[in-house]
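Teaching assistant here, posting this on the class forum so everyone can see the example we discussed in section. The complex has two components, and the goal was to see what a joint structure prediction looks like when all of them are supplied at once.
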Amino acid sequence: MVHDFLFSVASDTSGVSDACVLRVGLIGTGVVGTGTSLVLARNAALIAQRAGRPIKLVMAAARNLSKAAQVVGPDVVVVKDPWILVRHPEVDVVVEVMGGVGLAKDLVLEAIAQGKHVVTANKALLAEYGSEIFAAADARGVIVAYEAAVAVSIPIVKALREGLAANRIQEVVGIVNGTSNFILTKMEEEGMGFVAALRLATELGYAEADPSLDTKGIDAAHKTALLAAIAFGADVHFDQVHAQGIHALDPWDMVCARALGYRIKLLGVARQGDDAIEVRVHPALVPEKHWLAQVQGSMNGIWVNTDAAGPTFYFGAGAGSQTTASAVVADLIDVARQRAINLSSRVPHRSVSSGSIRSWPIMPIGQVASRHYLRFAMGGRLDLLSCLPRWLQKSGIKVQQSVFVQHPQDATQDSWVVLTPSLAGDVLVDKLTVLKRKVKDLEPAAVWRVEDLNLS
Amino acid sequence: MVHDFLFSVASDTSGVSDACVLRVGLIGTGVVGTGTSLVLARNAALIAQRAGRPIKLVMAAARNLSKAAQVVGPDVVVVKDPWILVRHPEVDVVVEVMGGVGLAKDLVLEAIAQGKHVVTANKALLAEYGSEIFAAADARGVIVAYEAAVAVSIPIVKALREGLAANRIQEVVGIVNGTSNFILTKMEEEGMGFVAALRLATELGYAEADPSLDTKGIDAAHKTALLAAIAFGADVHFDQVHAQGIHALDPWDMVCARALGYRIKLLGVARQGDDAIEVRVHPALVPEKHWLAQVQGSMNGIWVNTDAAGPTFYFGAGAGSQTTASAVVADLIDVARQRAINLSSRVPHRSVSSGSIRSWPIMPIGQVASRHYLRFAMGGRLDLLSCLPRWLQKSGIKVQQSVFVQHPQDATQDSWVVLTPSLAGDVLVDKLTVLKRKVKDLEPAAVWRVEDLNLS
């Protein structure tokens, strides 16, 4: 059965001289597995031509055999036990799209040990066990490719590692979680609260049954850790990445931010500082004219700043069946051409001045400086407005820009919103403690960071 | 002198085990040559690490030897005769950034004949002689890489050929000429006429002394021909590409377009039709919320639609010294890794239905269907407004949307602007001829195409 395909593939790729087929084993026949099978079949001729040889799905592992057989068709061997697949001599490359970090990790490591290349869409796996997996792949001389792990329709991994390879990458700032961005868009456009917007996202299939990986910023943090590792050649330990989700965000803050010319987005930020790198995920104010502020709904967008190419921006779908398959199959084509580089080709970033190799620590979030947005709710006492600037001044909090925003329905929600100059998070916390002590329990109703991205 | 660099390179890339240097010969030490030399030197360690071996400029050819020596530094041999460079045994790869299609073509072909890889930023050369050059490179087994030929800071060639390689590409629509886009932005934002905006662009260094390649759409057509060749695997003859520039555009049309919710941009369109491909450059109305409408000033933006990944968008600088160098050096890194594919790996696109190989003709511009924008100047006779809809109806011109726009200063410029349903250019011309015959010499003051790009 496995052998039969050789003739059939050769017959419909008659333009390809070297018909040495790349044989693919697929672990997982859910949304992404289905898309991968479909794209490989539909664009087989095109893919064979671009890869220099046919790429053929020969085996699939899935719990539900009959459902899996429907997905992959009659020419593909379906097995229940994924260990058979990762050890099968007629599988050249394993596509892991089952998800999770337990069994998936063991299977990927076994595939590598068996000398098979691996293509994976599993950001959690790579963010948590990337060092181990890439070291194993390096030692065994096989490729682990993962374009599908970040912003699937956008070839951002390739752009960072190859397209911009001449550059010192200075920052990568992305909207990399479509579920959160869908929820934020609904909150902003329709004034929905977080819970209502999440319910809608779940009803429409944008959110998982357990959406906490998305809404708590964990998924975005996995992806941002990968982007930082690529951009800076850094060994980013996922547990060092600051992740703050969107669940505490009040839609009223989105209105107040707009009054200052900003939108609030869940950003993944990877930035090169002088002595450390920043790798963090949290909601932040983005200038409303910036490209990232225009990424709406479930789409993804990534802003990259570099020393030679300057700023570039990338936009596309961040999830979906065929969209993810596009990245998986691109990786398969690279594997077929033996063109992929491992993440392990990362080494510690070199500093500009000395040219020497050094390892960059990750800056603790409290030390990261940025402008901040503070919202003070009036609670119906407009007389406070005349005192607030003085109180802030006494607490050492400078005001760079401020605006009073009236709530359309509820006067107690009327707010004075302030942008501070750039200062470290810890410094702001200290100043706010002073404020709270000096002025009986006064504290802002909301505090968010501002990302002042270069607009040029 | 040429030999000396080996030690110096090896010493500052101590992390690289395989110090087999890729030796670069640079033809042209102008803006792009200077940037390339600078980026190769500044990021030498990073580049060596990413390329797997050092990349070293060893020779440069330029008319002005002393100026060139200043650009490339004392370790690089500078020659006046580029033929010495393309034939020199110690040059592995030739970077052609001299421009032009005469001598550059001969030098590139000689470099190929000598077994050297070529990296070029020369879109005119490839658009006009690509078939000959890629055939020669194929026969000799060398790489011709050209990321710098289109939208330099954006790795779009790599995105189309590798990142999106799993996809059937349906359309590529780009703003790929920064000079024109700068002029259009000034016309739109400040109401300048074309001539004044062009003068400003020249003063600020955005336009060449002879700007006609840019303003007449020739440069954009070169790039669009290349994009079409990559996207559709088509052999696009440059002289079949319809190119219309921006010189005839009235800023008043930009105001009228805005009244309908559109901006006017110079677009390069490469689109897969049922029986033919469209490859064309002309000003067109773009929905103002579309990404392409937001690309302002001298920047570039490219919209790509595909069958699996869906729509993606790319933005960045389209010209400049280090920005172009970013693409040139990325190509050098690919060459160093022997990872690049030649354009000649293109073959005629396969049709979806039959799976068979077929060649796609380029659709004549008159047969390309789109909605059209027609502007009728009132010439001070507002009474015409009541007759115009009837006259259009009698001539078979349907009106899908229309608006009357008053000129702020000049009542004779008051205009009735109309969007037609989609129809072929030739069909519209016929209908307008009928109109002109039926209603004494009535014709629109301006006719432009509308590109209704999928916004999702």
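For the discussion questions: The first strand of chain B starts at residue 22 and ends at 27. Chain B has three domains: 5-149, 167-316, 366-450. Think about how each of these relates to the inputs above.
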